[in-house]
Amino acid sequence: MKEYIFLGLLLSVLIIIFIAYEVPSKDDFSPENPLFNGLSQASMLAGMVQENVGSLSSAPPNSTLFIIGPDKSFSNIDANEVKSFLKAGGTVILMDDFGTGNSLLEALDLNVRFDGRLLMDPLFMYRNPALPIVKFSMNGSALNVYFNYATVLDGNLGNRCIGYSSAFSFLDSNENGVKDQDEPFGPFCVAASFDYSLGRLIVISDSSVFINSMLDKGMNEKLLSMLSGNGKAILLVGYWNQSEYTFIRNSLMSSLYALLNTWLLYPFVIVLTILGAASGKIAYISLAKRGKGEDLQNNIQEILKRHPDWDEEALIRLREEMRQ
Amino acid sequence: MKLYGIMLLLFIVFLPLTAESTTIPRHEDPSTIRESWNIMSYFSFLSYVSKYVSAGNYSRANESLTGIVNSYIPQSYRGVIDRANSLMNQILIQLNQTEVLLEQTEAYINQSNFTAAREDLDHAKIQLNMANITFLSILDALSTLPVGAGGASGYLSGLEERIAHLDSKLSALEDLLRNEPYIGTKITINVKACSVEWGGSIAISGMLSTEFGQPIPNRAIEIHVGNKVLETFTEENGSYRIESNVTAYTPQVSIYSEFIPRGEDLFVYRYSRSDVVNITVHYISAIISVDLDKKIYLPGETAHLFLHSNLSFPLPFSVISTIGNFTGILNGNADVALRIPDDVGEGSYSLTLLTPPYGKIAPFRWEGNITIVKLPSNIIIDIPKKVIAGKTYVINATISPPSYIVVYSNIGQAVAEGSYIRFHVPLLYFGKSLSFELVATPFNSSYRGVAFSSEIEVINPLPIISAVLLGGGSLLYFLRYRLGKIRIDIKREKIGISLEGKEGPKGSIINEVFALISKLYGVNMEPWMTYREYMRHLLNKIEDDLATFISDILTKLEKAVYGKKDNLALLKLAEERASILYGKLKSKLKGE
């Protein structure tokens, strides 16, 4: 019985690893997600490395940190890490819409906020007014960038604004899809750039500009390459609501990665060999016992001939036990 | 049952692994998003263009149309709307040109330049006719859309209004030109000199008369001397005269006069213009050579600009550059010292030398570049190729000139202490390499900053030792097990009988004993029997002294085989005993 549980567990672990390897995450903004809402293409194109907020102190000063669609508020400690990164000369790209990016802006003491109302444009759009086209002005180039369920930026931004929606855009406060009397017309500021000590903070009011399904629209990809710059591109992880599957997958994959790409590989291979040998032996013994049990079954009558006083039922019971 | 158990286990493990995300929806897949486009919004934006045209604001109309052209249009309507947009663009050009031509016509009429006015009016008429045709084509194209031609014309009423407005304006101008009552005029010009010194005076005279030679007195005449425009009035005999100083720094100046009817003359006389007279102007051109003392400069250095003028008298000058400005007086030669700021970056910066106009001396302008470079910094760093986890390393980095050093590493524990860099590789760092980056910023701004990055191989003894221990232990365990088996098998061979009761090789003394007992007492050593079972069967049939003897031999054999020590002596003793027993049994068989 014990060997069956052991073999079953071993098989389950192997199947779980196989599924985790083959089935990608479906989470929004996940760099492993190749579906429409993932960042797999963007992270590959920009050569983004995934890092937690705690690792930012070791990043070179010309690095660019992408904070895309955070679901969780920034604690003071984490905001201070971002602040230190900016002070050291790094560039932070904060992209959010209806998330919690305002918590970071508050902590950085900047006079800009994500409005939170839905930006619609019935004229400059892709298929639907909720996918408006906005104009970015960066390094002397004008870029047509496609947004996807975006909001706008509030605050006295002046010449810090680097991206505008069209004059036909409006804020759909009641989310009924049409322009009502009390809903303001554009143009609205959708991206702003702030000098912050030695670094720079760029705030963009849509988190979905670089998802896989939007990257090929308009000049979204060019915007990504312009923002990434020449330094190290870092994607901040740990601020999204992860599904259970993604959590398990990430844990498994990172463990496997750590095992296969570090010195832990060697003890791991040895343990795997021992486990393999042990399970092989268990399987062999199990099969051998089954065979031996069959032999004994045939010999029960022979044994009874030699020992007529022995109990046949007891012998049969013994045979069953030996089978197990 | 066991199979069901395994399946249940797998089900429990995989149940929570459904790849579902529960995050807030923030986007939709553009390829599957429902198309939401309202044709009325297209018409409402078209009406903006129409309204701007109606107000004569063509630039805003163009902007709006560009917006519509670049806006999203569903595939099913694209053909019609693209055609309509193209026609709209065409009509904007045609109406705009009509406007411009009509304005020019008016201007010419105001100048009593009727020939040019008629020409422009004819062109305006053609443009307006074309605009009319285009308007009808637009309505035709839009009639295929769900709103129909009647609906579309409602949105384009602004265009229609503007066409009507231009048509009435055109008709009015046409009427004006048709009933032209004006008298033609003629103006002559006479300039005495054909060359003049800069600042010198020239006398310009001439005559204004009707086309029939009748002088026109007391009329304003405009005289153009180069870029300068002068005004004078005709005398009673129609003549005019004016003196003007020539102050242009151009080798040749064109002079002409024109009569532009104004006030009461506006609808009486036609515009006229004289011939053009060219005169030569003599002025002094300054030639200043500019030489830099070096080709390249370092930040903080002073650049010397050696100026040499072909003129021997003082000349004010300015040197303008993004790195600094300088103003002075050039008296033949000058040495301009321009200090280059410390914080300026490497690159080529423009330099402009200017002298203002100075009487007869024409202004001078020179443009050049100054190149600023920084000296390379030198770094010698003794980076180990391999490091061992758990150890602290101190690296000596010799950087010239003295610099401020910052070190970055993915292990996050590198600290720069003067020219030494101390870093500790944690014992629990299992990565095979670590990245190491050093950025040095020289205190002296004349030197370039330097960056150094390296990947260092890391050896961690912990996993290696544990792998060796685990592997070695397993191997020893395996060998011990196998060696034990081999030893027992060797002993079995020596004893000549299987411990499980199977017969060993024929001819061994033990087998001979078993064969004799079988013959004497009818008890066989069966394959399934152990020694103890054999003894149990034998005990009731054999004499007690022999039973004790056999039991003693078998006990010794068991000890010899399973005993942990090498009981070869015991085995020999068992064999000796077996020989004695064999003799006894043989005698019994013979009946002795």
Automatic annotation (TrEMBL), chain A:
Keywords, ordered alphabetically: Membrane, Transmembrane, Transmembrane helix
Family annotation (InterPro entries): DUF4350 (IPR025646)
Transmembrane residue ranges: 263-284
Domain DUF4350 stretches: 57-225
Domain of life: Archaea
Protein name: DUF4350 domain-containing protein
Species of origin: Fervidicoccus fontis
From TrEMBL, chain B:
Lineage top rank: taxon: Archaea
Parts of the chain that traverse the membrane: 458-479
This protein's record includes keyword Transmembrane: yes
Keywords for the protein's UniProt record, in alphabetical order: Membrane, Transmembrane, Transmembrane helix
Name of the protein described by the UniProt record: DUF4129 domain-containing protein
Organism of provenance: Fervidicoccus fontis
